[in-house]
Amino acid sequence: MSRPMGDSHKRFLQTLMSNGIISSIQAKALHRHCCETHGAHYSADRLDEFIDVINANLQPMFMYIRKGMSEEDGVQYYALVNTAETDITRMSSDYADNELELFRKTMDLIVDSENGAASSTDVLNCADSLQTKKMKKKETELVLNKFVQDKWLNEKQGVYTLSTRCIIEMEQYMRLIYQDLIKVCHVCHNVAIQSQICENPTCGIQMHLPCVAIYFKGRSDPLCPACNQFWAHEIPVVTCTLSRPPEANGEAEL
Amino acid sequence: MSQRKRVAHAGSQNRVPRVSRQVVLDEDDDGDASYTQPTSSQVQKARENYTPVQVDRKVAEVVQFILIKDQKKIPIRRTDIVKHVIKEYKALYQDIMKRADRIFEQVFGLKLVEIDAKNHIYILINKLQPVPGEPISMCPGNPKTGLLFVILSVIFMKGGTVKENVVWNTLKKLRVDVGEKHEEFGDVKKVVTEEFVRQKYLEYLRIPHTEPLEHEFRWGQRAEKEVSKMKVLEFVGELHSQEPQSWTQQYREATSGESSQR
Amino acid sequence: MSESRRRVSRGSQEESAAHTNGVGGRSRSERAADTGDEDEGAGPSGIHEEDDDPARRREIRSQYRDLINSVQQNREDMLNPANNKLIDVLEEANKLFANVRQAREAALDAQLLVLATDLGREKASQLHAEGSSFDPSAFAEHLLSFMGLNRLEEEEDDQEGLDGYLPPDAWQKLSKRAEHCFKTAPSFHYLLGSFLAEPPPPRQRVERQRKAPSKEAKRMMPTQLKKMEESHQEATEKEVERILGCLRSYYADDPESPISYYEFVVDPASFSRTVENIFHTSFLIRDGLARIYLDSEKLPCIAPVEDGEIEPSGNATRHQCVISISPSTWKEIIEAFEIKQALIPTVQMLTQEG
């Protein structure tokens, strides 16, 4: 084991266990709180090093604190993820088999869709064809709600998208399973699920909405960064990333 | 050389020292057939058989398994650890568990506690306390904790055993009716008499010779390790605007509990 | 069973009872002494004549059962510190026991005694509380205040003193504070690795199906095409590709105007080619490369499916239909749709090559 962890690291890790994912602003506040609680040396710009110490100890246990960006608002997040897929990890009791199958089907729908979203109608329809155990509509709604509550899916007006937590943890899995259905953002090079696609059929690059906003900010003519043709989408406004105030409630809203 | 020393050490840790005696049946527990106490020569042989990397991986898997089993707060049985994870490494059970416990302490700030020495049942408890001023809560924020607190404090304040009616009546005053579905807890009777019992927060026992059948509640083995009687008493005192010391007997028990838990 | 042995066992039973039965008044050993004298009179012969009287024994048992019943029914009453009902019961039992000679009756006596012991223990625990007492009702009231009970609405307190209502976060609030009494370990939750990595990627599946049509599809093929399928399997694939190419180029020319399905597949010059076109087009639909929909006049239209929107097979929105066409309907369609020219050029060149 590399550098031993102090109580400050342990407290940070425990908080991540309880919450699953926290925004970088929360992570900064938590870093400070943990160091101060246990009288550890605190330096504001050392958050990533602080997390590295935890990760060095976590990695052998098939766990990791991974950083990722929200596809919706571009905010940076830290998520505690599992990195193993074994008979042991499949003993997780959080969801029943048909609930997991529903999640997988929802993910299929979202990844296959053009805009990285699936309507609740489509998700409810695919619940009819579950192989493991069929689910009634009402039950399906409750299960979907649980996935939203547990921060694996986002829901907005009956449209489901993959949460930041889900993308951070499942990125490798998605690349493996969906292969070339999974595109990478031209700007940040991370997996792009909710994104805009270049209309030029010979180009077809994808960009996250927040990446589009940043990329075209201050440019008069939005041209595709790859093929130089007109970018035929609505350009989102930068709501932006770093200057956002911390969420009021302490809960990571995903 | 150091290995030998460790063998001796591990041997002395066993509840029943059995040196070089072939034990075919672990007579003390019926539901634990997959684990038999290995002899020291078996342990030695297993240590030679497996590389440190292999053993490291087993330790990590045990840690992972225990964390997974703890998701629902159901106590973890040694039988299951052996059956699902340790398997052919079972001669090294003591070594592996000791190292897993060390990882829980050194990485997670948790502690692996055996709540039932006869049946070898473990739980995880936290070594860190929640502190004020957290930017994000360290606790999962489960409303059932409140429900559990009410029941545990009534039991404790009433001397350790309480008839179920006392609990149901108290909950009813708090707008939680056992007969009805509660919007936060669902089937309250099921949560209290099944979930909390399975998690070993509560014991729900038949009172003998009662007609119709009656039950009483006691603290379960998990509660004894995971819940601080002193803190319960302090909170109860706070609620009554009364000094914890004024409940002489409970205070005495809480004090002795604190010192034995450490 | 001899008299002396019975006496011994009775004595030891009473001894253990005396230990736990502190509150229950008179101890049982005392009682044994009482009854002892009486029994002496039974003489050395052992079992007395009247011991075996079945009617007498039945009566004793019935009296014991009544007593046991009354204790069970009046538990609360027995426990009340204000009365001595428990002692009364025991005295009653003593009287009955004086006439007990046989094991069956003694067993009932033992049962009653166990019951009384439990009650005695419980009664004792109520009495010996030191310091402040603890009243669960008062506790509940304090908890309600802590949880933020709104006691303003007092007009509505029809039901047993449950006035006021709790705010929605009441239990959350209590939990947050109560957590400080718990050393609960946080738990770790994840999704990756909680299920097996299946199903195979939808797109791959589409491609595989296109290369090797399923058995069902083969079975459903029109007979005249079977031969072609067997000898020119590759040709089928090329043909499907070619038709897709046609469809895409028509669509690309003018994405706004719908392409009539019948206009697309019908070859006014050849009925058999029309059948072939329908057959090949069905692969495009099945593989999700094209879709058929109804326009405003409820006539079928066909459009290519663009890359991004390929639906995974098995999607619930898919439907199947069987198209049958006879030379006469073929003619009718040509007239109705005023089809002058085949939209799919003839396959002559291609099949010759194959």
UniProtKB/TrEMBL annotation, chain A:
Tagged with keyword Ribonucleoprotein: no
InterPro entries in alphabetical order: Nse1, Nse1_RING_C4HC3-type, WH-like_DNA-bd_sf, Znf_RING/FYVE/PHD
Keyword entries, A-Z: Chromosome, DNA damage, DNA recombination, DNA repair, Metal-binding, Nucleus, Telomere, Transferase, Ubl conjugation pathway, Zinc, Zinc-finger
EC number: 2.3.2.27
Location relative to the cell: Chromosome, Telomere; Nucleus
Signal peptide (from-to): none
The reaction(s) this protein catalyses: S-ubiquitinyl-[E2 ubiquitin-conjugating enzyme]-L-cysteine + [acceptor protein]-L-lysine = [E2 ubiquitin-conjugating enzyme]-L-cysteine + N(6)-ubiquitinyl-[acceptor protein]-L-lysine
GO MF terms, alphabetically ordered: ubiquitin protein ligase activity; zinc ion binding
Biological processes, Gene Ontology terms: double-strand break repair via homologous recombination
Keyword Nucleus: yes
Domain Non-structural maintenance of chromosomes element 1 RING C4HC3-type, residue spans: 185-227
Description of how the protein assembles with itself and partners: Component of the Smc5-Smc6 complex.
PANTHER family the UniProt entry points to: NON-SMC ELEMENT 1-RELATED, NON-STRUCTURAL MAINTENANCE OF CHROMOSOMES ELEMENT 1 HOMOLOG
Function: RING-type zinc finger-containing E3 ubiquitin ligase that assembles with melanoma antigen protein (MAGE) to catalyze the direct transfer of ubiquitin from E2 ubiquitin-conjugating enzyme to a specific substrate. Involved in maintenance of genome integrity, DNA damage response and DNA repair.
Protein name (record): Non-structural maintenance of chromosomes element 1 homolog
The organism's taxonomic lineage, starting at the top: Eukaryota, Metazoa, Chordata, Craniata, Vertebrata
Automatic annotation (TrEMBL), chain B:
Gene3D superfamilies (alphabetical): MAGE homology domain, winged helix WH1 motif, MAGE homology domain, winged helix WH2 motif
GO CC, alphabetical: nucleus
Region Disordered, annotated ranges: 1-45, 240-262
Transmembrane segments: none
MAGE domain: residues covered: 55-254
Highest taxon in the source lineage: Eukaryota
Comp. bias intervals (Polar residues): 34-44, 242-262
PANTHER family hit by this protein: MELANOMA-ASSOCIATED ANTIGEN MAGE ANTIGEN, NSE3 HOMOLOG, SMC5-SMC6 COMPLEX COMPONENT
Protein name as catalogued: Necdin-like 2
Source organism (scientific name): Astyanax mexicanus
From TrEMBL, chain C:
Predominant cellular place of this UniProt entry's protein: nucleus
Record GO biological process: DNA recombination; DNA repair
Domain Non-structural maintenance of chromosome element 4 C-terminal: 258-344
InterPro entries (alphabetical): Nse4/EID (IPR027786), Nse4_C (IPR014854), Nse4_Nse3-bd (IPR029225)
Record keywords: Chromosome, DNA damage, DNA recombination, DNA repair, Nucleus, Telomere
One cellular-component annotation, GO: chromosome, telomeric region
Nse4/EID protein Nse3/MAGE-binding domain boundaries: 109-160
UniProt biased composition (Basic and acidic residues): 1-17, 204-219
Location of the protein in the cell: Chromosome, Telomere; Nucleus
Disordered as annotated region, ranges: 1-57, 199-234
Family, as annotated: Belongs to the NSE4 family.
Record function comment: Component of the SMC5-SMC6 complex, that promotes sister chromatid alignment after DNA damage and facilitates double-stranded DNA breaks (DSBs) repair via homologous recombination between sister chromatids.
Assembly, per entry: Component of the SMC5-SMC6 complex.
Protein name: Non-structural maintenance of chromosomes element 4
Species, as recorded: Astyanax mexicanus (Blind cave fish)
Lineage: Eukaryota, Metazoa, Chordata, Craniata, Vertebrata
